[in-house]
Amino acid sequence: xxxxxxxxxxxxxxxxxxxxxxxxxxxxxxxxxxxxxxxxxxxxxxxxxxxxxxxxxxxxxxxxxxxxxxxxxxxxxxxxxxxxxxxxxxxxxxxxxxxxxxxxxxxxxx
Length: 110
Fold this sequence. Notes:
The protein is an all-beta fold. Helix content is 0%, strand content 42%. It has no helices and 8 strands. The strands form 2 sheets. The protein has a 4-stranded mixed sheet, with no helix packed on it. A 4-stranded antiparallel sheet has the order 3-2-5-6, with no helix packed on it. The radius of gyration is 18 Å and the shape is elongated. 15% of the residues are buried.
């Protein structure tokens, strides 16, 4: 993935205009990455939010089902630096440990 230095630059839309042309958007190829989220006892964690990130950017979001399974759609060839998991608003996100790469298994503390 090639990031331009201006990806954070906001686009200002003038007030009172009826139409506004946005600059071109570049779409990139993606692929699915399926995985499973478990606790330290290898029990599945349902209803958790998964975020895949690199640096300060989140590239994919997903949610676990009853069996802890999730699917993320990532840019093709992308290397993930960190998986973050949120189980509730009260506890906030925690960093998941990659237990297995293929199939992907993520683990968080109980």
